[in-house]
Amino acid sequence: MNKAVNKGKLIIFSAPSGAGKTTLVKYLMSAMDNLVFSISACSRKRRAGEKDGRDYYFISVKEFKEKIKNDEFVEWEEVYSDYFYGTLRSEVQRIRNSGRHVVFDVDVKGGLNIKKIFGDDALAVFVKPPSVKALKQRLKQRATDDDREIATRLAKAKNELTFADQFDVIIINDDLKKAKKQTLEAVQNFLNR
Ligand code: ADP
Ligand code: 5GP
Fold first, then answer.
1. 50 in helix, strand or coil?
2. DSSP letter at 168?
3. Ligand 1 centroid to 17 CA: how many Å?
4. Do the strands 35-37 and 40-42 form a parallel or antiparallel pair, or are they unpaired?
5. Residues 9, 190: contact at Cβ < 8 Å?
6. CATH H superfamily, domain 10-188
7. I need a labelling partner for 63 at 20 to 30 A (CA). Which of 2, 40, 76, 124 fits?
8. Pairing mode of beta strands 56-58, 10-14
9. Where are the domains of the chain?
C-alpha cells in the first residue's frame, strides 16, 4: 500500500510591484529545500530575461479567458488593464500532492483570496517597501518597465499598502539582509508549527 503523503502547505508573498518580493522569494527558494514556486499564467509580454514556463506561462488574453471559462484557476485578477494573472489549480495540486510546499508571488487581492481559501494551511506574507519614494527608485533602477508602466504601478501601490494589516506577517524590506533573515524565520516557524 502507498504511504499517505502529507499535503504541502502554502506560502504566499504579496506586495506592491517593486517592493522586492521576487528578490525575497528567490532567496527563500535557494535557502530551503522542499519549496516549489507556483508558476502563474499571465497575459503580459515577456520581459528580457524571463522564460516561459519558469517565470510565468505567457499566454494571450484570449487563451486566458478560455482558462477562466474552464475553471482552471484557483484565483485570477486583471492586475493592470488587459494584464491578466492567475494561479492554476493544476500547479497547486501537483506540488501539494507531492508533499512539497507551494510558494506564490501574487498581487495583494490574489494573496488574500488564496489565504481565505486555504486558511491555516497558508501563510500570507506582505512585503512592504520603506516608502513610496523608495518603491519608485527601485522600479526605475530595475529598468524593466517604461515610465507609464511605473506610474501605473505606483498609483496601484498606494491602495495595496492599505491591505498590509490583513496579512499574517509584514516584512519591511529596507535593509535587504535583514528582510531575508526575517523572511526565512517566518517561513521556518510556520512550517514547524
Ligand atoms: P517585486 O518582485 O516586488 O516587483 P523586485 O524583487 O523585482 O520587486 O525588486 C525591485 C528592485 O528593487 C530590483 O531591482 C531589486 O534588485 C531591488 N531591491 C530589492 N530589495 C531591495 C532592497 N532592500 N534595497 C534596495 N533595492 C532592493
Ligand atoms: P509583474 O508584471 O511585475 O510580474 O507582476 C505584476 C503583479 O501581478 C505582481 O504583484 C505579481 O505578484 C502579480 N501576480 C503574479 N502572478 C499572479 C497570480 O497568479 N495571481 C494574482 N492575483 N496576481 C499575480
1. coil
2. S
3. 9
4. unpaired
5. yes
6. P-loop containing nucleotide triphosphate hydrolases (3.40.50.300)
7. 124
8. unpaired
9. 10-188
Which residues have CB under 6 Å of ligand 1?
A: 15, 17-23, 138, 141-142, 173, 176, 179
Q: Please, how many CA atoms are within 13 Å of residue 149, restricted to the half-sphere of its CB?
A: 15
Place of cell 512585503: 127
Q: What is the residue with the minimal CA distance to atom 19 of ligand 1? A: 20
Closest atom of ligand 2 to CA, residue 113: 22
Q: What's the CA gap between 72 and 86, in Å, rounded?
A: 9
Q: What is the pLDDT along the chain (193 residues), one digit of tens a residue?
A: 444 557 899 999 999 989 999 999 999 999 999 999 999 999 999 988 999 999 999 999 999 999 999 999 999 999 888 899 999 999 999 999 999 999 999 999 999 999 999 999 999 999 999 999 999 999 999 988 899 999 999 999 999 999 999 999 999 999 999 999 999 999 999 999 8
Cβ-count burial of 95 within 10 angstroms (0-12 exposed, 13-18 middle, 19+ buried)? buried
What count of residues does the chain have? 193
Ligand 1, residue 137: give the atom nearest the CA.
12
Which atom, in ligand 1's list, is nearest to the CA of 15?
Answer: 3
With a CB cutoff of 8 Å and minimum separation 6, the contacts of 90 are: 72
